[in-house]
Amino acid sequence: MLSIHELTKRRGSREILSGLSFEARPGRVTAFLGPNGAGKTSTLRILLGLDSATSGTALIDGVPFARLKDPLTKVGALLDGSGAHRSRTARAHLRWIAAAGGIPPARVAEVLAVVGLTDDARRRVRSYSLGMSRRLGLAAALLGDPEILVLDEPVNGLDPEGIRWIRTFLRERAETGRTVLLSSHFLGEVAETVDDAVVIHQGQIVAQGTLSEVVGEHGTIEDAYFALTGAPRGGLR
Ligand SMILES: Nc1ncnc2c1ncn2[C@@H]1O[C@H](COP(=O)(O)OP(=O)(O)OP(=O)(O)O)[C@@H](O)[C@H]1O
Predict the structure, then answer these.
(1) pLDDT tens for residues 67-108?
(2) What is the ipTM of this complex?
(3) Which atom of ligand 1 is nearest to the CA of 41?
(4) Domain ranges (residues) in the chain
(5) Distance 73 CA to ligand 1 centre (A)
(6) Residue 16 CB less than 6 A away from ligand 1
(7) What confidence tens digit (pLDDT) does each residue in 193-212 have?
(8) 223: DSSP letter
(9) What distance in Å separates the CA atoms of residue 112 and residue 135, rounded to the nearest whole number?
(10) Among candidate residues 225, 161, 235, 236, the one with its CA nearest the CA of residue 31
């Protein structure tokens, strides 16, 4: 369970997150939706212990990320890119993370297979496409077979086959009782994948609930999103 409570973040004189509260629950895919600059990445970075809150809390099963006893098996995260050094191979990158996290090296081949990178595992990351880098980042997030996945824009850079694959994959994770929180501004993908939605605009939550509660009388998640955020339609697909 992910629990964000009254989370506020100031940068200089600007408040970029203003009293956010929401949860992402086990067995469900929760979408964190909002236009560019709304505060999605900032929230996820605080949740993952990469930045501090000005006030409020962001907890993983009741504790901050830094206090997790076994972080790789509790939460897997994908932020921008793959996180790999460009001169390393995918396999070497994953082996290094596995070794650091006390995960058996055999798990590396398993996660490479899950994300469809087995045949490219010995290539250097510098030769990877954007979509392959995202798959590698996801492989790293899966190394500990975590209970919780936190993914920032996971469909970014994926081709249609990759998008379909991740959609199915995330549903399967949720159906086995795991928690999935993903940020997105690709609304078409969200509608078919998620159970719950949280919409953020200018650092404030403007709607949250089950997907059907958030869609409400708007008809579609896309109509709801534009009505709630006032985002220009040309800026999204
Ligand atoms: N390191 C930083 N220093 C100053 N301001 C920042 C920093 N990181 C983010 N911001 C600002 O905080 C606000 C929220 O940014 P954030 O990246 O969290 O948004 P986002 O919803 O993830 O957007 P995107 O979809 O573009 O990634 C923006 O106004 C951004 O300019």
Answers:
(1) 999 888 999 999 876 567 788 999 999 999 999 989 999 999
(2) 0.91
(3) 22
(4) 2-61+147-231, 84-146
(5) 28
(6) yes
(7) 899 999 999 999 999 999 99
(8) H
(9) 9
(10) 225
**What pLDDT does residue 158 have?**
85
| Residue 86 CB–ligand 1 contact under 6 Å | no
Q: Report whether pLDDT(236) > 70.
A: no
| Contacts of residue 226, Cβ cutoff 8 Å, sequence gap at least 6 | 233
37 lines ligand 1 (CB under 6 A): yes
Q: Which of 47-56, 68-77, 152-161 reaches the highest mean pLDDT?
A: 47-56
Ligand 1 within 6 A of 40 CB? yes
| The pTM of the whole model exceeds 0.95 | no
The secondary structure of 113-156 as a DSSP string is HHTT-GGGTTSBGGG--HHHHHHHHHHHHHTT--SEEEEESTTT
Out of 3.40.50.1110, 3.40.50.970, 1.10.530.10, 3.40.50.300, the CATH code matching 2-61+147-231 is 3.40.50.300
In the prediction, which pLDDT does 234 show? Answer: 53
User: Is any atom of ligand 1 closer than 6 Å to the C-beta of 11?
Assistant: yes
CB of 201 within 6 A of ligand 1: the answer is no
Residue nearest to atom 28 of ligand 1 (CA): 37
DSSP E strand stretches across 28-115: 29-33, 55-60, 75-78
